[in-house]
Amino acid sequence: MVFAAAVVELCAAGAAAGKVKPKKPSDPTPPAANSALPPAAATPSPAATVVVQSTESLLAKARALYTSMEYADAIPVAEELLARTDGTVDERLDAYLLQGSCLAIVGDAIEAEKPFRFLLRGRPTYEMPAETPPKILGVFRKVQAEERAIVGQLKELGRQRAIRELELKPNPLATARGGVPLVFEYKLKDPRGSVAAMYLSYRKSPSAPFSSLALTIDDRGFWRAELPGEWTASEDGFTLQYYLTTRDAEATDLVTLGGPRAPLALPVEAGVVAEVKPFYRSWWFWTAAAAVVVAGGASGYLLYSQATSLPQTAGRIDLP
Length: 320
Hints:
The chain is α+β, with helices and mostly antiparallel strands. It has three domains: about 110 residues, Serine Threonine Protein Phosphatase 5, Tetratricopeptide repeat (Alpha Horseshoe), CATH 1.25.40; about 100 residues, Immunoglobulin-like (Sandwich); about 30 residues.
């Protein structure tokens, strides 16, 4: 009986299993949990946070390493500072100084030249301190000499270019007369504004030294200088020797007319300074005096008689 009941029970279980409905193909299969979600971002740990140092702190660190003679360690710090764009000009120049100094100490003299070159182009007059080590000073002096030569060459090229563009036209003087002012006038074409000063050098005798007179610009745009009549006065006449020099803002000569070894020449005829009449010899004085006499009566006549009786010596009035 027991066996039969067990068989019946097993058969009933099999029949029940056969009645389980299969899933329809149209039924969607539920996705696995989180299969369509992106992976969660990892939360950084406090130890992995990067601290960005300021340019000022990097420069201070490089200086400290240089002072403590840790030259190899100071080089990458200076390079990091120079790779940034937020530093000031002075901070970058200080970094070039540290970089070049450290490279010279560790033995890379060729690489040290480049930062020293940048330093001197930003600070052309910079000089190393007296206590600078010889290895640094040797590289620096070499670069300094080369940079000064480059600056000199560039200045000379600029000067030659300015000279080619300058055009100086004098107001022609054939002869001059002594005892009257002698005026020199020049029209200057100067597209770059290179000329800052103009000087006239002159003398009466070939054995005399040249004197110098600065020219000024008048309202017409002429550069002008004038020798007074007292200087040109001569009883026998003479030949004036002169030359003209233009200079830039650094007092470097540009265009010249003539020169100390080949001066220009201008004949000056004999002539003396015209005698200046005392005021009481002028017509206007006596016209005014006559009017005073008519208007003032006796007092006017007294003034007239005193004026006509004053003694004169070499054009000078001697008051009683």
